[in-house]
Design a protein that fits this description.
Helix content: 25-40%
Order of helices and strands: EHEHEHEHEHEEEEHEHHEE
Strand content: 15-25%
Number of helices: 8
CATH superfamily of the largest domain: Response regulator
Number of domains: 2
CATH topology of the largest domain: Rossmann fold
Distance between the termini: 25 Å
Structural class: alpha/beta
Length: 225
């Protein structure tokens, strides 16, 4: 997904863009409202993340102008202004959602996923296939080379996350936040244990491994060859 982050706080922008890129998204950044509006109108973005308080043009004005010009790109306001009146103004200006700072990154990702599903419900995946490995998200079934593989609930969530990020490096932080819903490092080997069990079921009895350890970075599930 291609996302435009319009945020003048460079530290906050770096945090958001880094996390989104680690999650597999292509991210552009604008540091003021005028630049953000120009990029939003010229670029083919799937999502805009907009701060309320921006130099040159504030976030409300930016989004109003986009809507007046017919742009339908989903907009998520990300702002320190968190009063009810502030949120209402953001939604009435044309925003689709409003998240108050500080926030949990996993919640930001979840809200992005919801907005994209609303914009393009036909694109929601129910099955994912990588090489000869297939996961049925509705039936909660996994097969490889036609053989059924029995997974525990946590193993299923771990495999689902890896397959949704096929070919990408998935960090331990990403797994803790998205599979275990931890917003801190529990200082345990919980990921190693579950990854070892998952590999035993997904790769052990097959010629070509699909789950790979990326030393110093995390893990990656990718097609054979």
């Amino acid at each position: 997904m291609r996302i435009l982050v319009i945020e003048d706080d460079l530290e906050a922008a770096a945090y958001v863009t880094k996390g989104l890129r680690e999650s597999g998204h292509v991210v552009d950044h604008a540091a003021d409202g005028e630049e953000g509006l120009s990029l939003a109108l010229a670029g083919n973005f799937d999502m805009l993340i907009v701060d309320r308080m921006l130099p040159k043009r504030d976030g409300l004005s930016l989004v109003k102008t986009l809507r007046e010009q017919g742009a339908t790109t989903p907009v998520l306001f990300l702002s320190a202004l968190g009063e009810v009146d502030d949120r209402v103004k953001g939604l009435r200006a044309g925003g689709d959602d409003y998240l108050t700072k500080p926030f949990a990154f996993v919640e930001l990702l979840a809200r992005i996923e919801v907005l994209v599903r609303r914009a393009a419900p036909e694109q929601v995946q129910t099955k994912i296939q990588v090489s000869d490995l297939e996961i049925d998200l509705l039936g909660r079934k996994v097969t490889r080379n036609g053989q059924a593989i029995d997974l525990q609930p946590r193993e299923f969530r771990l495999l689902e996350y890896l397959m949704k990020h096929t070919g990408q490096v998935v960090t331990r932080t990403m797994l803790l936040e998205n599979v275990w819903e931890y917003h801190f490092d529990p200082q345990t080997n919980v990921i190693d244990v579950h990854m070892s069990r998952l590999r035993g079921k997904i790769d052990k009895n097959f010629e070509t491994p699909l789950i790979h350890t990326i030393r110093g970075a995390g893990y990656s599930l990718r097609a054979a060859g």
